[in-house]
Amino acid sequence: MESFEHIPKYPVQTLAKALDILQYLKENTSTEGVSISEISRALSIGKSGVHRTLDTLMAYGFVEKAGANSTSYLLGWGLFDAGNAVPKQHTLNGANYIPQLEKLCNRFSETVNMGVFNNYETVIICKIEPNIKLRTNTQVGEREPLYATALGKLFLCDFTPEELQGYFENIEISPFAANTITTYEKMKAELAKIRHQGYALDNEEYFDGMICFAMPIKDFTGKTVSGISVSGPSRRMTAEKLENIKESLSTVCAQLSSFLGYNN
Amino acid sequence: MESFEHIPKYPVQTLAKALDILQYLKENTSTEGVSISEISRALSIGKSGVHRTLDTLMAYGFVEKAGANSTSYLLGWGLFDAGNAVPKQHTLNGANYIPQLEKLCNRFSETVNMGVFNNYETVIICKIEPNIKLRTNTQVGEREPLYATALGKLFLCDFTPEELQGYFENIEISPFAANTITTYEKMKAELAKIRHQGYALDNEEYFDGMICFAMPIKDFTGKTVSGISVSGPSRRMTAEKLENIKESLSTVCAQLSSFLGYNN
DNA sequence: CGATTTGTTCTAATATTTGGAACGGCTTTC
DNA sequence: GAAAGCCGTTCCAAATATTAGAACAAATCG
């Protein structure tokens, strides 16, 4: 996995430690926050260093104290804000794609996801659900593995055989569901099929009982920069419905791709 | 103005510079990215330092290169990721407020917003709309000025007269709509009224033809940390309706405030 | 009520960051 | 087409900022 990540030649260690702390804070799920001592122990950084780092991060709103008389820390709204600025700088921003995703959601009454490729994972950047009461496991901002999802396989299509092999050698493969593709060879064949078809199908490869149909959005270089998926329970995703989804998605993705300068 | 910000006793300067760079990157609106030299000039940090810092930030996905062969930088999806984790661990999260906001939205068939105070602006953290087809200009994660909105004025209520004056001297005032309050004196009177009433009204101060009613959520220190607003076209926001909104919001905000330890 | 653990402060030793200079590649300009 | 300028990148030694650990008071636990 390391070979895929960007490794700075001249890392700023102080900053790296601060980002490690931020990452550790992010993994906290409670609203109680995390104490300085806990961070110190977990990351093997001196208490005083953690203290000073959190103090500085707090000045920028990236972390906050957890509340009442708490001395524990949470991620702060300044980080929320900064995070929400990210999509605006990326190429698809001007395309006004959300109404299109909503139309797709309304038409098929299934969950519509949009994802981008980042650091050998898919980041869900937009999610439209048919019924607000039905919540699936994934949420905006979360990451999904490439090899087990329809969106992810679209991104894998841009990998050379060597890159794909490297990917499979470096990541930890988990059989999430009945049909998860777990070997390089099978994936190679699958990707060939996807490239030929122009769409990807996740047939119970990530969640048992769930099928996901996805198509790519490409930029002017032909690279798949994003993708849209429609997913639902297998029994509702009939062949006929999938065919209709394919047609609709095809139109939307072609339009967004041309927005990015993709021809043909 | 400064007195509001948290000033670390022992700042980690290296980290502070990195966060300055991140903030500068955030202000960029284009999809072209920002060059190392530009950042270096703008923030008076040596080119090599900017380079090394960006390299480290890139390793964590907080920034990205703008394109395959580009040497300019954009905010990265790792930051998006981190930002989306913020609401999940915030104190109000445990209050499970979204259903309450939805109830408000359903009851009045108007847009319900929730905002928090951060860095002298309001950050919209949740937005519930009665009809998905009607879109207002604001979106989750975006910032609104304090002086022109109902939510913002709630936060201004915590300012001392000196702080308020400093605020008005340091920000750029734009008359967004017919009734935008643009002077310190008028705002001072308005805030006194709001403090007395316990709610804030934006009567066509941000968008012409739009009225917004807001009430504060306070934490254990009595500080207004968040607020909820209901907004709609003036003709629909009758006195009677506003009275009903006031009652409903009052209940919800009191409940959420007590959740944060606010007494009385 | 004693024992532990917490956050915070301080200091001196250390390792880190720093900015400037140098380099090669690229674009612009004359 | 040559030269000048700007770019990102690398390197280095000087100097600064960070670090870990100890010390302390306050809070928590048994």
By DSSP, the count of extended strands of chain A is 8
The Rg value of chain A, from CA coordinates, equals: 21 Å
Q: Largest sheet of chain A, if any?
A: 6 strands, antiparallel
Domains of chain A, number: 2
The largest interface is: A-B, 69 and 69 residues
CATH top level label of the largest domain in chain A: Alpha Beta
What strand line-up does the widest sheet of chain A have? 5-4-3-8-7-6
Q: What's the CATH superfamily of the largest domain in chain A, by name?
A: GAF domain
Oligomer: homodimer
CA distance, first residue to last residue of chain A: 34 Å
The global form of chain A is globular
Reading the helices and strands of chain A in chain order gives HHHEEHHEEEHHHEEEH
Summary of the model, kept short:
The first copy, chain A, is an alpha+beta fold. The first copy, chain A, contains nine helices and eight strands. Chain A folds into two domains: 13-84, Winged helix-like DNA-binding domain superfamily/Winged helix DNA-binding domain (Arc Repressor Mutant, subunit A, Orthogonal Bundle); 88-259, Beta-Lactamase, CATH 3.30.450.40.
